Automatic annotation (TrEMBL):
<keyword id="KW-0472">Membrane</keyword>
<keyword id="KW-1133">Transmembrane helix</keyword>
<protein>
    <recommendedName>
        <fullName>AMOP domain-containing protein</fullName>
    </recommendedName>
</protein>
<dbReference type="GO" id="GO:0016020">
    <property type="term" value="C:membrane"/>
</dbReference>
<feature type="domain" description="AMOP">
    <location>
        <begin position="1"/>
        <end position="150"/>
    </location>
</feature>
<dbReference type="Pfam" id="PF03782">
    <property type="entry name" value="AMOP"/>
</dbReference>
<keyword id="KW-0812">Transmembrane</keyword>
<dbReference type="InterPro" id="IPR051495">
    <property type="entry name" value="Epithelial_Barrier/Signaling"/>
</dbReference>
<dbReference type="InterPro" id="IPR005533">
    <property type="entry name" value="AMOP_dom"/>
</dbReference>
Amino acid sequence: MKNIDTCTKWNNNEPNPEPLLQKIRDCPCIVPTSFPKEIYDGAETWKADAGCMASKQPKTCEYHKGAYGCYRHAFKSSGPGAQCCYDKAGNWIGDPFEGAGTLDRERAPDSILSLIQLKKHNDHDVIPWNNCCRNTGMAEEYCRLYFNKRPPGKCQNYIL
């Protein structure tokens, strides 16, 4: 199957995610159940992820089944970013098979008009997910390859 071969090749060529994880902010462990468009963790602002917004339930979170809402943060306009997903009670989800967010090698752009960053994010993060997870029917063996290279990171108890 082409997708499995593509997934396996991607996994073999993709570097260890640890250096990227060190460049992103830890997720807040808990967010308000009102799921505002932005949250401030005491030092940084997190923005609601347009692909998984609580206000659009149940027609959202296609890439994070089980999540109720997600937030994104990145220190720069390109490069790695954090995506953090939460259940309806506002608790961080750490298991990728239950809807966790993931490390982005190339952060999702803030605007669809950022075409170069959109392409980078698509090439490095979305297409590999499609090849390893969606197009294999979420087969755990291959989907796990993706999540090993794009882990959910960890959470920290910020004072929101």
